[in-house]
Amino acid sequence: MLAQRAMQVSARRLLLGQHAVSTGQMMGIRRTVTTQSGESEILIKQRLNRPVAPHLTIYEPQITWYPSMFHRLTGVALSGPLYLFSIAYLAAPYLGWHLESTVLATSFAAWPIAAKAIAKTTIALPFVFHSFNGIRHLAWDLRLGFSKVQVARTGWFVIALSAVTSLYLGLAY
Amino acid sequence: MTSITRSMVLGHVFKSAARPSAFARPASRLAQSSLKSASLPFQSARVAAFHVSARKNLFPAPPQRVVGTVNDPTPIKESHPVHGSYHWTFERALSVGLIPLTVAPFIGGSLNPILDSIFCATLLLHSHIGFDACITDYFPGYRMPGLRNLMTWLLRTATVLTGIGLYEFETNDVGITAAIAKIWKA
């Protein structure tokens, strides 16, 4: 492909040198780039060997994309176990498991208090963050809070509120 | 690639340490594959000294599909309001509906079975739409159509099974909000 292109450029240069070429004649020489099958296969294979530019690992954490990332992560972290639990509840009789609410409650009650508090806070945090950030998203859908200052303020407010609320729900509810 | 960037930044700090061992490795590396990054011999030499494990990319490049030639225009999908604006409106309606359904159990302890069923259905659809957005983002249709189709149908199957499971849980057990309340206060 490169050789072809070089040929076309040199051909045009030759033409320019030999004649006084008007614009009309120049337009007749249209550069076409064609891919020949053998070369493109090597190219496609070689592209797989190229490194991917770093993105998530190097981008400065900011109040714009970090909450957005955590909104998606917490959403998946909440819905994933919901899906898994429901499907496991359907499969439990065939696998000999007991996933009824009373069984779960009594086995959770047997945990040490510290473990219960930590588990409850850890589960409350994604739920609370996703809910509050969801309200922030809905506010944006109503065209509220779009300026940079407002995005930063509401973002930090949601983070602070989530921390406080999840601590309350996990330890004192 | 991550490691190349970081090491290029740190390289000037560790210049003296890098030089002696730097030339020991790259010769064999470059000889192994003539097609690989021959354009950065010295940088990869400097980098090679720091890494004892293979360079692993976070999310390596997926396989490429080149459809047609470079002269063909980018194909644009047909748009339809069902997948566009109606989908958006429905998604926001679900999200707004979830707010009172989520707040109510905290006020009243738990929800009665009818409200709990409505809550579970709304939550299920909300989750499905969320997972669908993840699939749309991470499995581009033009690059990996087969995998995208597979994930979409896996999600649909999972949602249907989850719906059945939630129905069974609601019928044979106490329902989601009551179960969470029971476990939480245990």
From TrEMBL, chain A:
Some GO term, biological process aspect, for this entry: which one? mitochondrial electron transport, succinate to ubiquinone
Give the matching Pfam families: Sdh_cyt
Localization recorded for this chain is: Membrane
Which positions are tagged coiled coil? none
A GO cellular component annotated for this chain's UniProt record is: membrane
Q: Which GO terms describe its molecular function?
A: electron transfer activity; metal ion binding
Xref: InterPro entries: SQR/QFR_C/D, Succ_DH_cyt_bsu_CS, Succ_DH_cytb556, SuccDH_FuR_B_TM-su
List all membrane-crossing ranges: 76-97, 109-130, 151-171
Arranged from A to Z, the UniProt key words for this protein are: Heme, Iron, Membrane, Metal-binding, Transmembrane, Transmembrane helix
Task: Give the record's membrane topology.
Answer: Multi-pass membrane protein
Q: What is this protein called?
A: Mitochondrial succinate dehydrogenase subunit C
Q: Which organism is it from?
A: Microthyrium microscopicum
Automatic annotation (TrEMBL), chain B:
* Keyword Transmembrane helix recorded: yes
**CDD domains attached to this UniProt entry:** SQR_TypeC_CybS
Keywords associated with the record: Iron, Membrane, Metal-binding, Mitochondrion, Mitochondrion inner membrane, Transit peptide, Transmembrane, Transmembrane helix, Transport
Q: Which Pfam families match?
A: CybS
The residues the record assigns to binding a ubiquinone are 138
Location of the protein in the cell: Mitochondrion inner membrane
User: What superkingdom heads the lineage?
Assistant: Eukaryota
Q: Which residues bind heme b?
A: 126
Would you name any one GO CC term? mitochondrial inner membrane
Q: Name one GO biological process term.
A: mitochondrial electron transport, succinate to ubiquinone
- The answer to keyword Amino-acid biosynthesis applying to this record is no
Q: What is its main location?
A: mitochondrion
Report membrane topology: Multi-pass membrane protein
Question: What terms describe the molecular function in GO for this protein?
Answer: heme binding; metal ion binding; ubiquinone binding
Task: Tell me its family.
Answer: Belongs to the CybS family.
Q: What is this protein called?
A: Succinate dehydrogenase [ubiquinone] cytochrome b small subunit
